[in-house]
Amino acid sequence: MSLETEQINELHWLMEMLHTIDVGLVVLDRQYNIQIWNGFMENHSGMLPREVKGKELFSLFDEIPKDWFKRKAESVFLLKNKAFTIWEQRPYLFKFQNYRPITGSADYMYQNTTFIPLMSATGLVTHLCLLIYDVTDNATNKQDLECVNNELAILSQTDGLTQLFNRSHWESCLQSEFKRWCRSRSPSSLVILDIDHFKNVNDNYGHPVGDDVIRHLSGIIKKHVRETDISGRYGGEEFVVLLADTPLENAQIFCERLRKEVAQSIVTHNDIELSYTISLGVAEVDLSIKTYEAWIECADSALYRSKENGRNKVTLHPKQA
Question: Is 281 within 8 Å of 299 (Cβ atoms)?
Answer without folding.
Answer: yes
